[in-house]
């Protein structure tokens, strides 16, 4: 099992990266919405920021403010001077584990299933998030960040590193679970099973409390759209939250017993 972090295992609604992207660009004279900031969610954070720079409206604002087009050095400066400190701060304050995670991971461990993780966080922010999760009782067997490999999502290398360290093979014995299209693509590119998480996802983008306040119709409308997007990306299955991991494992096991492969 390989789990994503924000929007999947912790940080219901995936808020930790949003304010840092919005604020970092604001400090450079560029205004974006929370929804725009969420667009490339799942990528390594440096790659995510560059994708935001590529948005036509962002490029236009940069050109108007700085009297020239942006370049890679601009991305690097905004990333290191503004985004990184903001992300480290938010990674600690937005790392509450998703309800049901601890029980689900305990169930997996009782079955002998190892739990690895992948993330888009850089090292300093990841360490803050990992520490906050440990303090709540979440202890994955191994964590991998983009800097540990040659490229982050949607490349499969973080999954492969988890497999190597944890001694798991072949890829058909691995299930990747995450809340973004890039999570799904990461799993598919590794040849693993890929499942999408909906309720706590970045695309739904609501706190646990906000989500609970929705009517059944509102909740269904939001989650159906996200589930459809993840299925179209190739997800083999969809769950509401990681609390459903034990049932998901049973469904994947049943498919394996029939000879099906990812």
What does this entry show, briefly?
The chain is of the alpha/beta class. It has helices at 18-27, 34-38, 45-53, 56-66, 72-93, 101-110, 123-135, 157-166, 181-189, 208-213, 216-232, 245-257, and strands at residues 2-3, 116-118, 142-144, 175-178, 193-197, 237-239. Helix 1 packs across helix 5 (72-93).
Count, helices: 12
Q: What general outline do the C-alpha atoms trace?
A: globular
Count all strands and give the number. 6
Task: List the helices and strands in order.
Answer: EHHHHHHEHEHEHEHHEH
Strand order of the largest sheet: 3-2-1-4-5-6
Radius of gyration from CA coordinates: 18 Å
End-to-end C-alpha gap? 14 Å
Q: Which parts are unreliable, with pLDDT below 50 for 5 consecutive residues or more?
A: none
Which class of secondary structure composition applies to the elements? alpha/beta
What is the share of helical residues? 40-55%
Task: Please describe the biggest sheet, giving its number of strands, its sense, and whether it closes into a barrel.
Answer: 6 strands, parallel
Q: What proportion strand?
A: 5-15%
Mean pLDDT, nearest integer? 97
């Amino acid at each position: 099992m390989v789990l994503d972090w924000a929007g999947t295992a912790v940080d219901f609604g995936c808020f930790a990266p949003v304010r840092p992207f919005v604020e970092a660009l604001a400090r450079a004279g560029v205004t974006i919405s929370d929804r725009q900031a969420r667009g490339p969610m799942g990528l390594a954070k440096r790659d995510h920021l560059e994708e935001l720079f590529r948005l036509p409206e962002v490029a236009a604002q940069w050109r108007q403010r700085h009297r020239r087009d942006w370049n890679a050095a601009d991305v690097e400066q905004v990333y290191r001077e503004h985004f990184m400190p903001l992300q480290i701060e938010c990674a600690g304050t937005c790392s509450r584990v998703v309800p049901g995670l601890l029980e689900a991971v305990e169930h997996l461990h009782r079955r002998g299933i190892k739990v690895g993780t992948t993330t888009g966080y850089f090292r300093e922010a990841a360490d803050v998030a990992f520490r906050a999760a440990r303090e709540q009782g979440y202890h994955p067997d191994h964590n991998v960040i983009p800097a540990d490999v040659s490229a982050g999502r949607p490349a499969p290398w973080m999954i492969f590193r988890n497999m190597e360290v944890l001694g798991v093979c072949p890829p058909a014995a691995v299930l990747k679970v995450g809340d973004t299209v890039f999570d799904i693509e990461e799993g598919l590119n590794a040849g693993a099973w890929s499942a999408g998480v909906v309720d706590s996802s970045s695309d739904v983008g609501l706190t646990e409390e906000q989500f609970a306040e929705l009517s059944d119709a509102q909740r269904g409308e939001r989650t159906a759209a996200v589930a459809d997007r993840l299925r179209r990306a190739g997800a083999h299955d969809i769950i509401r939250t990681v609390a459903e991991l034990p049932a998901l494992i049973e469904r994947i096991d049943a498919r394996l017993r029939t000879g099906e492969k990812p």
